[in-house]
Amino acid sequence: MLGKGGKRKFDEHEDGLEGKVVSPTDGPSKVSYTLQRQTIFNISLMKLYNHRPLTEPSLQKTVLINNMLRRIQEELKQEGSLRPVFVTTSQPADPLGDNFREAQPAFSHLASQPLLPTDLVSTTPLESCLTPASLLEDDTFCTSPTVQHDGPTKPPPPALQPVKDSFSSALDEIEELCPAPTSAEAVAAETAAHDSKDHPSESNVQKPEGLPESRTAESKLMDSLPGNFEITTSTGFLTDLTLDDILFADIDTSMYDFDPCTSATGAASKMAPVSADELLKTLAPYSSQPVTPNQPFKMDLTELDHIMEVLVGS
Amino acid sequence: FLGAGGGNDIQWCFSQVKGAVDDDVAEADIISTVEFNHSGELLATGDKGGRVVIFQQEQENKTQSHSRGEYNVYSTFQSHEPEFDYLKSLEIEEKINKIRWLPQKNAAQFLLSTNDKTIKLWKISERDKRPEGYNLKEEDGRYRDPTTVTTLRVPVFRPMDLMVEASPRRIFANAHTYHINSISINSDYETYLSADDLRINLWHLEITDRSFNIVDIKPANMEELTEVITAAEFHPNSCNTFVYSSSKGTIRLCDMRASALCDRHSKLFEEPEDPSNRSFFSEIISSISDVKFSHSGRYMMTRDYLSVKIWDLNMENRPVETYQVHEYLRSKLCSLYENDCIFDKFECCWNGSDRQVIFNGTVTFFLPPLCSIVMTGSYNNFFRMFDRNTKRDITLEASRENNKPRTVLKPRKVCASGKRKKDEISVDSLDFNKKILHTAWHPKENIIAVATTNNLYIFQDKMN
């Protein structure tokens, strides 16, 4: 923070962030552009989701931060890092009428938003940001890109998915069935952003673990973006009752015991609860209601088995 | 001698400072708006605690021709109270966003003050006489026993200590879903506009139970919202014309004769982005925080995060002049985004409408308005002035240190990079908590009011 006349010291990871944006097609400066973009993205998320004012937050500020996030999202999308987003159902409109708290919106319009002019023309993958393909070919989704410990200058992988393996296509299927994003994703995003902010050099590890996981988390996090014009209550967008239900209620995770995964890497042990949450939501039936553990799963047991097989990689 | 000098012929001196000396700033004392009335005799401030403080200039002492009258407290009143919106479970801040004076029509003064949701018309009147000698009442107000009244007398007015009373005459409420950022009184002096993030309403000063919506940029689907209204102002001469600025750096001029709902602008002022300066923050720093017409109405001035732009109303595709307020911040935008300073809303103002010219000490001429100097605030309690004629600019500081009356203020300089010269301040030493957002220029004289966080500074030019 800037103090009262005291000399400010830049954090290490901010080196190269200030100043003009460099073209992302240059060699090493491509990395700093991505790093800068990622940092700004995280900061923007923090601003939107950490703000718990007693009064209504400024609409102008919210709109500007939102535009920033959308711009970055469009860039990432153009780089091929995000799949085209899917249409989600809307929650019922606010019966209270014309106020800040509008209906939870569908996400589809963002796919058609005009791309803001950027320097980014090339769609060739940014090799230095990619997780080595070998990691993606591992049989479990639990493997995290643990190789990237190179320090602050190494950028976190921005959720790239250049290789379409069997897992991701199965995940596609699941997600096509997925209901509207719930506030839990926002928490996952916030946690990710928070981690990234606190440990910039390790953000690539602590981001939603495993590339497929991070991809879905990030796309879901994007989903929740348009809805943040509703974030006006003092309790905040994140303190939905259902969120508490999901996070703290007893969840029967016996079906989702990934024995091979938990012993794979150290980071994987952290992933089990997250994956259970994710799975819980992705396996929710074709309803727009947030998932509660008490809801019976309408999905066929055979389908569940199929999914389990894919996930376990057998 | 004939003295109608430009901004840099003016030598600014410290005159007064109002407010607490403490470094610990009480939140309620944060000044949120500053405005001179049309004669310059009164200077109003609004604060975060919902209070309005009005200062009055002492009548000039003819023997003390070397200084103009001082400003002393004339009236203080609580304009707005905090409210609670039960539907949304949110507080409505009592902070005064804007004050606008009405031109004086009789002995009383009128001003409009607004918070986020409600506009109020206040009447400020003086009472310096009171009636005495009633037949049926004692002096303390108790009724006399009628049987004791034996003679009749006529009550007379006797002088009393001056009492200044403020009373709310109109309350214009419940017309804004979003936060009001601007109010502007029309040149017909009968109507005024109020603007929030998405809508602009037209009011009649006499009518409080309804207003006309003249601009509405709310999209049918709130998720498509990418632009908000940031400021609005009526044209000073043309009572059917007004402008409003946006968070994307555009200004729209609208004519109310064209249609009831002015959603289609008559003119759109926008400068194309400079590709060499493009960054992630281009949109945010282009957001306009203030718009002010010149007194003739031929030009308007806009303030965005880094610059002040002068526009000719006849040219829409670019401003005629651009002045950089603190270009050295361009390389710090990421940090300023992180600590929210990039969202600070700086205002700007023109120099006074009339230029008083003294000739031989006895004859006074008034030159037509020049609008040749613009003033705006910055960080570290610095404020800047730009002279449009000489193209020179100056940076001054509002600070209690080294400020003796009639001592000329020393110009400041910020060192952007490289070796810092003596007396220069490096960018990294700037205090971003000390921001000057609100400034005002006396309509007739070279007197300026500059608000730091919780203090009000008054500077005058050095009269010889």
Automatic annotation (TrEMBL), chain A:
Segments of skewed composition (Basic and acidic residues): 8-18, 192-201
Domain SERTA residue range list: 33-80
Composition bias, Low complexity: 182-191
Organism: Alca torda
Protein name: SRTD2 protein
GO cellular component terms, A-Z: nucleus
PROSITE patterns: SERTA
Pfam families reported for this sequence: SERTA
Chain intervals for the UniProt region annotation (Disordered): 1-29, 141-164, 182-215
Superkingdom in the source lineage: Eukaryota
The organism's taxonomic lineage, starting at the top: Eukaryota, Metazoa, Chordata, Craniata, Vertebrata
TrEMBL record, chain B:
Entry GO MF terms: protein phosphatase regulator activity
Gene Ontology CC entries for this record: protein phosphatase type 2A complex
Coiled-coil positions: none
InterPro entries according to UniProt: PP2A_PR55 (IPR000009), PP2A_PR55_CS (IPR018067), WD40/YVTN_repeat-like_dom_sf (IPR015943), WD40_repeat_dom_sf (IPR036322), WD40_rpt (IPR001680)
Entries under SUPFAM superfamilies matching the protein: WD40 repeat-like
Keyword annotations: Repeat, WD repeat
Keyword Translocase in record: no
Keyword Zinc-finger: no
UniProt similarity note: Belongs to the phosphatase 2A regulatory subunit B family.
PANTHER family: PROTEIN PHOSPHATASE PP2A REGULATORY SUBUNIT B
Name this protein carries in UniProt: Serine/threonine-protein phosphatase 2A 55 kDa regulatory subunit B
Organism listed in the record: Uria aalge
